[in-house]
Amino acid sequence: MKYKYCGNSGIQLPVLSLGLWHNFGDVDSFDTATRMILHAFDSGICHFDLANNYGPPPGSAETNFGKIFRDNLKAHRDEMFISSKAGHDMWQGVYGTGSSRKNIIASCDQSLRRTGLDYFDIFYSHVYDGVTPVEETMQALIDLVRQGKALYVGISKYPPEKQQLAYDILREAHVPCLLSQYRCSMFDPKAQRENFQLAHDNGSGIICFSPLAQGVLTDKYLNGIPDESRAARSTGFLQRSQVTNERVEAARKLGEIAKNRNQSLAQMALAWVLSDERVTSCIIGTSSMKQLENNLGTLSNLAFSSDETEQINRIINDPVLFF
User: Fold this and answer.
1) Where do the structural domains in the chain lie, given as residue ranges?
2) What separation, in Å, do the N-terminal and C-terminal C-alpha atoms of the chain show?
3) Is residue 177 within a helix (H) or strand (E), and if so which, with residue range?
């Protein structure tokens, strides 16, 4: 495994982190989840990314991770970097969502109980809710650190003007933002263009999620939409309408470049995100040991020639592909 420092800090993260957004809830195989987490850890992935609402149902990913941790990894707690977040819809009622102090602190307490942990290595504001003053949200994160419930804090998906305000508040309180989490892929360059440099200039590490565009940047959809795929479900973050002919054709062309690099398309897509020197880590979300092994294989070829970069850019620099 390769490790990188997070911005202006002494913390290193593996360039591939395991996310539990999908495939670790109560609707999924607990045995498969266990095997993936243990194999990831044995392979050098020491960072596990959670959130209070991961499942389904919401909270179940944290509960299942807690069971796996307690039964298999508790002795290795000091070798692990575990994150969680709050801000999206979690429970019914006016206090179960958003970025208020009440929701942030209550959510962290609940997440600690579900996982059975004494503290999180990092706790994020999962989203800027558009209502709560950034000062209120950041003070809640600052207080979580001072209460010993989190060692570090981070922000996720904040727009640039709120992103800078968050950095300023946290720096003033001597609780700097360790990580900024944003969606990024070959088909989703918005954060790379709008948020990455701001994070870099403020000494924050950058961690990316959805690097495979919810599976579109794999060979899964090259011949239609499989029945068991995310896009085939009636609910979820990837809809059939998003698996467009243009994206499928671009993925097919990118797959040819990957083949010439002796990589799968997924491996090349991960390597592309990691090729941005500002990026600390990339969150992978796997549903099987086969996918996990394939993603780990990315590490054997992270570099791109100038010719490869030019070929890739010719394909992906088309707004019709962007999510």
Assistant:
1) 3-219+269-301
2) 30
3) strand 177-183
Tokens of 198: 């701001």
Q: Greater confidence, 234 or 16?
A: 16
> Which pLDDT band holds residue 242 (cuts at 50, 70, 90)?
confident
Instruction: Give the residue with greater pLDDT, 140 vs 235.
Output: 140
Side chain identity, residue 201: D
pLDDT in tens, 21-58: 999 999 999 999 999 999 999 999 999 999 999 999 99
Task: Please compute, for residue 308, the number of CA atoms within 13 A of its CA located in the half-sphere on the CB side.
Answer: 20
Whole-angstrom distance, CA of residue 77 vs CA of residue 79: 5
**The overall pTM is greater than 0.85:** yes
pLDDT of residue 232: 43
Residue 225: predicted pLDDT: 55
Q: How many residues does the chain have?
A: 323
Query: 3-state class of 283 per DSSP?
Result: strand
* Distance (Å, whole) CA 111 – CA 30: 19
Number of neighbouring beta carbons within 10 Å of residue 27: 11
Do 96 and 90 touch, CB atoms closer than 8 A? yes
What interhelical angle do 289-296 and 30-42 show, nearest 10? Answer: 20
Give me the chain's average pLDDT, please: 94
Q: Distance between CA 291 and CA 270 in Å, rounded?
A: 13
- DSSP notation for 200-212: HHTT-EEEEE-TT
- CATH second-level architecture of 3-219+269-301? Alpha-Beta Barrel (3.20)
* Dihedral sign from CA coordinates of 29, 182, 78, 62: negative
Asked whether 261 and 188 are in contact (CB, 8 A), the reply is: no
**Cβ atoms within 10 Å, residue 277:** 9
